[in-house]
Amino acid sequence: MSPSDRDPIVIACAADDRYVQPLAVMLQSVLTNLSSDRTITAYIIDGGIEPGHKQALAKSCHPPRASVHWLSARALSFSGLPLWGRMPVATYYKLLVPELLPGALHRVIWLDCDLVVNGDLAQLWARDLAGRHALAVQDPAVPFVSSYNGVAHHEQLGLPSDAKYFNAGVMVVNLDLWRRDDIPGQVLEYLRRHGDAVVFLDQEGLNAVLAGKWGELDPRWNCMACVRRMVNDPWIVHFTGNLKPWFYPGRNPSHALYFRYLDLTAWAGWRPKRSLSGLILGRYESSGLRDVLYPAEVWGMRLLRTFTRRYASGATEEGKR
């Protein structure tokens, strides 16, 4: 079933105060490229954004083209779920969407806040779900459930090794099927059972549960800035990994794209401070050296995971504030 072209486009996302600026950039990029006759309704799961930052973000969204609704992260307990590195419990907030969003909504576009939308989201919204639980893009770095960092227990789960693995940062979600089949509950069960082996957290859980139940989108709907062999004319650029434009002044063209949208928000003119580490990262990322050393980067990530692995406590971050 396809939605009406008269209805608002519904998106959901999540952020804490550290990511409020990228969130503003993401929303601004959506509005900049949206068909002039369309509007959006944005549901933001609040991981602890300061009131003043909320006001600045809402002002950047140019009402009445965008309606912003703040949701409290309270519906599920994430106790016992794996975490590693600096990853906050907010990474699991996308699992709250079926319960927190109004029951009358049948679909939603989930967008991570570390991306920019460079195409018309109305085209993605119009895609027919065709009975699928979600639409997403195959992950170019982890293309199959059997790939390194894929679904650790895919054989035990009976998943074929050539089952495709998707990136969960951009999804068209079938809310009716997620609610009917309790997809969040199934993901939580998988993560608690296999947490010691899980690498990409909620994304791995979703791939384990939704294997064979999702439809594939054009890769231009989720192009990773860290993958140099990006497709031409990306509709969404996703800043996966640690080398994000708000951390250091990089030379990658995707960084310039980020700041182009940033300068249309309440944070116009802001730039990351220059530093020696930032200069080194910029050289590393733009020189092609990253292509050669990327396997070592992945190995380092696995090592970081080993030494920083921990588990979430019973309260959500919002509940602690």
Can you describe what's shown?
- By secondary structure, this protein is α/β, with parallel strands linked by helices.
- It has one domain (9-320): Spore Coat Polysaccharide Biosynthesis Protein SpsA, Chain A, CATH 3.90.550.10.
- Helix content is 33%, strand content 17%.
- The protein contains eleven helices and twelve strands.
- The chain has helices spanning 20-33, 51-60, 97-100, 121-125, 175-180, 183-194, 201-210, 253-262, 276-286, 289-308, 317-320, and strands at residues 9-15, 40-46, 66-72, 82-83, 107-111, 115-117, 134-138, 166-174, 214-216, 223-224, 236-238, 310-311.
- Helix 2 links the parallel strand 2 and strand 3 (66-72).
- The relative contact order is 0.17.
- The model is unreliable at 315-321 (pLDDT under 50).
